[in-house]
């Protein structure tokens, strides 16, 4: 009996990266959904402002002219520049001190176990409690503001760097030692690369807290920057103008967070994750 000579058609499997989205909604992309969420938020804000009135909750249509006015007068850019000087100075100082301390805590276990309890204790203490002492020691000028920002941002970076170094792959470290790698090589080529995602997470948390610390410092010390605008517009009930520095702070935080996520993708290309925060 002759066997059937019909062949089963063969098709080359398609990799998941080349597959098209099953639904048209997914093809919109993350940025598209973010734009839709922003428009929905602005629409809900506008609808909520109608019964509330301009004094209690101005509409986005009221905030936009206030933004244009502050830009034309130069007050907004001057305040933003002053705040950025304080933020960048304190945040960079926090990075330069926190990452080495965190690396040393993770590399030298007795040192890390000794400081761990104190770092976590200070991290859980409200920073506002230390502001009167900082003002007493450093005065009311920019030095005190930078110290407040540094003190606000430094502990999350230390904790995340410490955790990242502790979570280094022990098998890689043991293999490197078996091949005669020196401690400095292990730190540079294994521990630090493994700690990069943790460090970036700490930098993102620290940046958010540094922005908060900048505004708090400007409110508690000599009034300047965006904190000065918030105090001025809040005390005079200029609600539409009050929302302008608030929106600038939100935009600044978003820009810094997204920039750090991009930096993480460049420095930790080996890391595979299906979830982004």
In short:
The protein has 277 residues and is mainly α. Helices cover 74% and strands 0% of the residues.
List the helices and strands and how they pair.
Blueprint: H1 29-52, H2 60-73, H3 75-107, H4 109-123, H5 131-138, H6 142-166, H7 170-178, H8 183-220, H9 225-235, H10 239-267
Helix pairs in contact: 2-10, 3-4, 3-6, 3-8, 3-9, 4-6, 5-6, 6-8, 7-8, 8-9, 8-10, 9-10
Report on the structure:
The protein is mainly α and 277 residues long. The protein has one domain: MetI-like fold (Orthogonal Bundle). The chain has helices at residues 29-52, 60-73, 75-107, 109-123, 131-138, 142-166, 170-178, 183-220, 225-235, 239-267.
List the defining traits of the structure above.
74% helix; 277 residues; MetI-like fold; mainly alpha
Strand runs, count: 0
Annotation field: number of helices? 10
Query: What do we call the CATH topology?
Result: MetI-like fold
Average pLDDT, all residues: 82
**What percentage of residues falls in helices of 4 or more residues?**
over 70%
Distance between the termini: 64 Å
Note the run of SSEs as H and E. Answer: HHHHHHHHHH
CATH class: Mainly Alpha
| Annotated CATH homologous superfamily | MetI-like
User: Overall 3D geometry?
Assistant: globular
Report the sheet with the most strands, covering strand number, pairing sense and barrel closure.
none
Strand coverage percent: under 5%
Low-confidence stretches: 1-25
CATH second-level architecture:
Orthogonal Bundle
In total, the number of domains comes to 1
Cα gyration radius (Å): 26 Å
Sheet/helix structural class: mainly alpha
């Amino acid at each position: 009996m002759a066997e059937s000579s019909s062949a089963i058609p063969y098709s080359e499997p398609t990799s998941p990266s080349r597959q098209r989205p099953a639904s048209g909604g997914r093809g919109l992309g993350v940025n598209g959904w973010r734009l839709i969420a922003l428009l929905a938020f602005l629409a809900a804000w506008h609808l909520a402002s109608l019964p509330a009135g301009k004094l209690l909750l101005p509409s986005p249509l009221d905030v936009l002219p206030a933004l244009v006015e502050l830009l034309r007068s130069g007050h907004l850019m001057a305040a933003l520049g002053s705040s950025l000087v304080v933020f960048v100075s304190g945040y960079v100082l926090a990075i330069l001190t926190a990452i080495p301390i965190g690396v040393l805590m993770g590399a030298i276990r007795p040192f890390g176990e000794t400081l761990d309890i104190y770092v976590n204790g200070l991290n859980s203490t409200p920073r506002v409690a230390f502001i009167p002492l900082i003002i007493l020691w450093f005065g009311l000028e920019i030095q005190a503001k930078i110290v407040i920002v540094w003190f606000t941002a430094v502990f999350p970076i230390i904790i995340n760097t410490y955790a990242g170094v502790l979570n280094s792959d022990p098998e890689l470290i043991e293999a490197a030692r078996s091949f005669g790698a020196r401690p400095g090589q292990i730190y540079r080529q294994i521990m630090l690369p493994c700690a990069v995602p943790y460090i970036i997470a700490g930098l993102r948390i620290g940046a958010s807290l540094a922005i908060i610390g900048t505004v708090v410092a400007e409110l508690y010390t000599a009034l300047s920057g965006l904190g000065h605008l918030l105090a001025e517009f809040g005390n005079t009930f200029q609600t539409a103008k009050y929302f302008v520095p608030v929106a600038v702070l939100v935009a600044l935080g978003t820009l810094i967070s997204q920039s750090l996520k991009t930096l993480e993708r460049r420095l930790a290309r080996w890391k595979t994750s299906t979830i982004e925060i």
